[in-house]
Design brief:
With 408 residues, this protein is mainly β. It has one helix and 35 strands.
Length: 408
């Protein structure tokens, strides 16, 4: 049964470039010129500031917008101020000199990247966005550099994907940086993969530490026949970038956005207005046949682990309420947590079911590092006070339960 997506009333009839939600009800959509916020699940929107190309919240109060410049909010998106100007805003092609993507490891460490002519277009911050520094060396790309995608894995490794033109060959280079003391280095597993040639990255997503996804499209070479990987528009890794493979599903149009709600549930949006979903971690995908009227899907966001929002051209805003469980049957094992609330260890009871894989995510959909004490017990003492979703996977079945982490 395809997922049911609802078309929401848009605050403005303009192309929406990105969306980000900090809870199931509170989130943001942005266009090139405006930023809008909702506090009731997308039923109503109010303008809170200027827009851009990408939006990211490092916490429920600390948010960033990347576009012509980098904007910062410290009050949950109520107000925004410019904290960094693009280094080439005054050049003749200033309309093209913009930041296209932004992401954060935590409230202090982030990375942004975009287009620049004859300059470096990737910057990082280590002080919560107050100051931003150039970090990529000049030899990363020739005079025209287009850093289109960024992402941060759960262990804090930062990734930047840059589109490069070398004589007649065009390709995407992928760089990583593990810590503040490290320099950017090429991800050899990606750059040696034949699929990266003529590949123009449009989106990148890391789930956990080792599972990464890059989507985009192949640009047909003008002097040679199409490569064997010509139809590949999504590549993924399960070993932190050492090796990459393409999905068995052939996506017919350029992929703009990829995101996952948990280890199993994921979504892909393309330029033809299609949204594809997976319930098995990306092994198989299906077209959800969303009511987009063919308008490009530009960004997809998970809202509090219980909803999915997608935005696109022509003011398109879609919402899908996730089912409680992801298995195709309605017979997932019951899940009980105790004590709940907890200050430390949690016992997991799934009845007669055998030991399973346990994942804990916060209400922003981010996977948390926990200690596995035994097959049926975890230690969450290192987590901050708040509400989390515990997912227990056994084969193709997944059970979920809310867990409250109390203060000491």
């Amino acid at each position: 049964m395809p997922a049911q997506w609802q078309v929401l009333t848009s605050p403005r009839n303009q192309s929406m470039t990105a969306t980000y939600f900090i809870s199931s009800d509170t989130g943001f959509v942005i266009s090139a010129n405006d930023c809008f916020r909702t506090t009731n699940g997308g039923l109503q929107w109010s303008r809170t500031g200027p827009g851009g190309n990408s939006i990211y919240f490092a916490s429920k109060t600390l948010g960033f917008i990347a576009g012509k410049n980098i904007l910062r909010s410290t009050d949950g998106g109520n107000t925004w101020r410019t904290v960094h100007n693009h280094p080439r805003r005054d050049e003749f092609n200033e309309a093209m000199n913009t930041y296209k993507a932004i992401s954060f490891k935590d409230e202090l460490h982030g990375v942004a990247a975009g287009y620049c002519w004859a300059c470096r277009a990737s910057v990082t911050t280590n002080d919560g966005g107050e100051t931003w520094l150039d970090t990529l060396p000049y030899h990363v790309f020739p005079p025209q550099g287009d850093c289109r995608v960024v992402a941060v894995s759960s262990n804090g490794t930062r990734y930047v994907g840059c589109w490069t033109i070398a004589e007649w060959l065009q390709f995407t280079e992928l760089f990583s940086r593990r810590s503040e003391s490290d320099w950017w280095s090429l991800v050899d597993g990606w750059n040696l993969h034949i699929g990266s040639s003529w590949f123009i990255a449009k989106t990148m997503y890391w789930h956990g530490e080792k599972q990464g996804w890059i989507g985009g499209h192949k640009k047909a070479p003008q002097r040679t026949p199409p490569y064997p990987y010509y139809n590949v528009r999504v590549l993924f890794t399960t070993d932190a970038g050492e090796t990459w493979d393409s999905t068995k599903y052939v996506f017919p149009y350029t992929v703009n956005t990829i995101t996952f709600a948990d280890e199993l549930r994921g979504f892909i949006g393309d330029t033809a207005g299609n949204i594809y979903s997976t319930t098995d971690g990306g092994t198989t995908w299906k077209n959800d046949n969303v009511p987009s009227d063919g308008r490009s899907i530009n960004s997809i966001s998970i809202a509090g682990g219980s909803r999915v929002f997608a935005v696109g051209d022509g003011g398109l805003i879609l919402r899908h309420d996730l089912p409680v469980s992801v298995q195709e049957a309605n017979t997932s094992p019951p899940l009980h947590l105790y004590p709940n609330p907890t200050t430390g260890r949690v016992r997991i009871d799934i009845g007669e079911a055998e030991a399973a894989v346990v994942t804990v995510v916060d209400m922003m959909g981010r996977v948390q590092n926990i200690t596995l004490v035994s097959d049926n017990e975890i230690d969450v003492g290192m987590l901050t006070t708040g509400t989390y979703v515990v997912l227990v996977r056994r084969g193709a079945q997944v059970s979920t339960e809310l867990m409250v982490k109390a203060g000491e």
